[in-house]
Amino acid sequence: MRAVQRGLREGGAMAAARDPPEVSLREATQRKLRRFTELRGKLVAPGEFWDIVAITAADEKQELAYNHQLSEKLKRKELPLGVQYHVFVDPAGAKIGNGGSTLCALQHLEKLYGDKWNSFLILLIHSGGYSQRLPNASALGKIFTALPLGNPIYQMLELKLAMYIDFPLHMNPGILVTCADDIELYSTGEFEFIRFDKPGFTALAHPSTLTIGTTHGVFVLDPFDDLKHRDLEYRSCHRFLHKPSIEKMYQFNAVCRPGTFCQPDFAGGDIADLEVDSDYVYTDSLFYMDHKSAKMLLAFYEKIGTLSCEIDAYGDFLQALGPGATVEYTRNTSNVVKEGSELVEMRQRIFHLLKGTSLNVVVLNNSKFYHIGTTEEYLFYFTSDNSLKSELGLQSITFSIFPDIPECSCKTSCIIQSILDSRCSVAPGSVVEYSRLGPDVSVGENCIISGSYILTKAALPAHSFVCSLSLKMNRCLKYSTMAFGVQDNLKKSVKTLSDIKLLQFFGVCFLSCLDVWNLKVTEELFSGNKTCLSLWTARIFPVCSSLSDSVTTSLKMLNAVKNKSAFSLNSYKLLSIEEMLIYKDVEDMITYREQIFLEISLKSNLI
Fold first, then answer.
1. Which segments constitute the GDP-fucose pyrophosphorylase domain (predicted)?
2. Which of 26, 239, 245, 427 has the most CB atoms around its CB within 10 Å?
């Protein structure tokens, strides 16, 4: 699992006189949630909250989907009012990465507000990806992923706003940059607050294992004089390393050794077996840049005109900062999806632009970082992980109609805004969201069911992923349901038709699946780039006239593969997931969710 929770326990005699770190963390998190609940649907006072909340989108389709959902949230008073909510779309053409999206967002702000944004507190949330590793977030966006929490239910947007509730009160004008699919929890002590008031850049840092450091940014901090670690520390940073090897962490003195001040407590997840006295590093999550730094980046972007390569807001901005920064990283393309000479040149220009700018670090020793961007992480945190459940108050059944789920020490199922017949069964480890399931439906373990409607008898095999989309095709409303295994790699691609045998669908050779479905191997089997063939671009999902037929048909193709029995798809119009997102009907999908919401409200006597 990519990034899991990370925390460091304060040591010494002082620890005995105060709450245990996990208690402090839970209480701090619950206070933030209560404060945000007070602000939902209320007009916020100047300086009390963000002036602007901006979300990035990859294309115009995504922009429309995000704006539609923001509009609905504001109508239902699920967000604080008196705030400017914007969606900023990347320019058409080459992918520009979250760094390019940041530059583009600055330009949007300048066009909308002129010099006025000099005095604004701005939250910028990057949500421009297509969520290929968690496809139930692909159609409506990662930032609108539903959580088993709240009434009305929280989505990632509300949780971000809640966890950052204290930031605007202690922040100079500038921009806080974060991503849509992670959660940062922290405790700073009763009378301390995180302040973003220094010139240049300021980043949050979390104690982490060296293994986690290899997939994140790692801070090389200047020496620290204090004899004890506190929950909150303001540190200066010598340099920033992006996804370094463990060897490089040691080489550049990024590794902290236990025993000098305190010992790290890495609890839970895939780091549960780590020795208590292990070495650790400080890794990144979000960062702030003051208005002067933002204006410098904007002037640079307007000078270059058009970006033709992907820029990383963390790897390409933060690595240029601090007195120890060197230009060598600009030529390291090992973590880059698409290489090119223009990328190296652009990185070098950014380095020389930002060199000399300070990088301040807010060390959060009692903090945890959760990444929920893959099916594996999504299922683990919503059904199995007791830590996040305790800290956020996650529920097994959230705003749904379904009999109580027996709690067990290992894992439960998770039902979010859904209507399930009392006779249907959902096995532990599975998540059902925005769906209706009839009496003869059984869901196996570790499944994800999203936006679906199943009334007829159906058995969903363990580890199934089923997500339905409304489509607008030739002005007609249609439906298609993507169905595969939760562990399938939709991003894995091959360059030629002869190599598609290397792809796997539900753990089965994709070539064998095509035989089961009576589909021929031709270029027409795939949408988009014909030299990048993947499950994401495979035209294998039937288009139907009703939502229930769509789910039933896709389940038949799934079970045909599991049971090795033929089910011909020849008579259906077939789409790839890539094409579903092009044809998606956002309004109908949101209407379906609203119908479920109203029915639950009526039956629960909440209206």
1. 114-545
2. 239
